[in-house]
Amino acid sequence: MWRIAQACPQCGAAVSLGEADRLLICGYCRCRLYIAAEGPFRYLLPSRGCLPEEVIHVPYWRIRGQVFTLEEGKIGQRLLDRTYRAADLPGVPDSLGIRPQAVKLRFAGADSPGRFLRPKERIRPTSPESGPPLPGCEPPLPGRDLAFIGETKSIVYLPVLFRDGLYDRLAGRKIAPAAQPIDDTSRFEEKAALGVRFLATLCPRCGWDLESAREALVLLCRTCGVGWNVQGTRWQTIPVCCLPGQCPTDLWLPFWIIRASVKDLDLETYADLARLANLPRLPDPRWEGEALCFWIPACKMQLTTSLRLARAATLTFPKPVPEPGIPDCEHVPVTLSAEEAAETIKVILCDLGRPRAPLQERIDSIAVRPDSAQLVYAPLRKIHADFVHAGLSLCVNEKIVQFGRALSLNL
Ligand SMILES: [Zn+2]
Ligand SMILES: [Zn+2]
Questions:
Q1: Which ligand sits nearest to residue 210's alpha carbon?
Q2: Same structural domain for residues 189 and 245?
Q3: Does residue 352 sit within a domain?
């Protein structure tokens, strides 16, 4: 895992952050600040000696996450962990390899010395152009690429310098003896767009502390009973609902309820889904009037668990009606965005379709466009080593929940 060195914006103490951290927690002054940026986070690799103003920062896309693939009727999952060059410059390597793991990164900012080459559009991480995987990471499975859920999609800059050729300032050696300086100034970015902002984790409406966890994407205000997330560098309210409680409730599990248009597949209502899944139940006339929604866990967990929960909740009929409000006791933090959850709809369809083969053969032509997403918490009750919700047929082992929570420890 990469580490990022950052001085606490409030007291200046050194703080070490993980890549997926959205929260800076200072061990010295105890402040908790949310890290926000317009676009992806951008990091600087350290250089040998201080950086002169003539240094040029070469961007690399940094991709880490799960790729879902389909091969011979089986849905597979692999970790993808790689960097690949996002700007053309003769002599610089295609990938940074494992070098960023060995050093501490820093956030790029408007006050960073040097100039920044503009990154090209990010290509799909599993495309052959993105290069071979890093040592120690399994290559993606052969077969069709269904979805990519990124824990990290960021940009990291390699510092280089033109003297009598091109020098890599991280390695401290010449990498392209014949390279010529870049004359075209349009290849560089405005530095004002770089950098992160640190937002106080206080409710913008009432000023009270927001409940926050290291990797949480949605923070709750207990006073106002609303959720907040960051769009770019600003707080925005997000409607939060809860399903009617079970007594007692031991844990709340978040779901995204996503309405989506599925191109090339007749999927508008719950009845359409029941036909696709070939449900062994007598059709109910109410199915035709029920708009289809996908229920997807809003936290990162193992694929098999996530698919099982999505299948159980999505296929439940009739569903409990959510009511506005926030969880009244312990809840699993939201660590998967609505966009990422929507990415998994194709995977869910591949898993739900019965028989599977005809749908899976057509999967490349099926496009999913999310229309709306709503955040809902389901109340779970602890029974022995499991958390369950009988109405939605949910059952999840406490170890899996603990693992999800460990990812975003509320320190
Ligand atoms: Zn501090
Ligand atoms: Zn509030």
A1: 2
A2: no
A3: yes
Residues 6+ positions from 156 with CB-CB distance below 8 Å: 42, 43, 44, 45, 59, 60, 62, 83, 96, 100, 105
Tokens representing residue 24 in the block? 């800076």
Distance 275 CA to ligand 1 centre (A): 57
| Structural domain harbouring 72 | 37-197
Going from the Cα of 358 to the center of ligand 1, the distance in angstroms, rounded, reads: 57
Tens digits of pLDDT across the chain (411 residues): 789 999 999 999 999 998 888 999 999 999 999 999 998 999 999 887 777 888 999 999 988 888 888 887 888 888 888 888 999 998 899 888 888 888 999 999 999 999 999 998 776 666 655 666 555 555 555 667 778 877 678 999 999 999 889 999 888 889 989 888 888 999 999 998 899 999 999 999 999 999 888 889 999 999 999 999 999 899 999 999 999 977 788 999 999 999 998 888 889 999 999 999 998 888 899 999 999 999 999 998 888 889 999 999 999 999 999 999 999 888 999 989 999 899 899 899 988 888 888 888 888 888 889 999 999 999 999 999 999 998 898 999 988 877 655 544 333
Shared domain check, 342 and 263: yes
405 CA from centroid of ligand 2 (Å): 24
Q: How far apart are CA 284 and CA 103, in angstroms?
A: 60
Within a domain: 114:
yes
DSSP secondary structure letters along 343-380 = HTHHHHHHHH-SSHHHHHHTGGG-EEEEEEEEEEEEEE
Q: How far is the CA of 403 from the centre of ligand 2 (A)?
A: 29
What's the CA-to-centroid distance between 335 and ligand 1, angstroms? 25
Query: Which amino acid is located at 131 in the chain?
Result: G
296 alpha carbon – ligand 2 mean position (Å) = 27
Are 318 and 376 within one domain?
yes
The model's pTM is 0.88
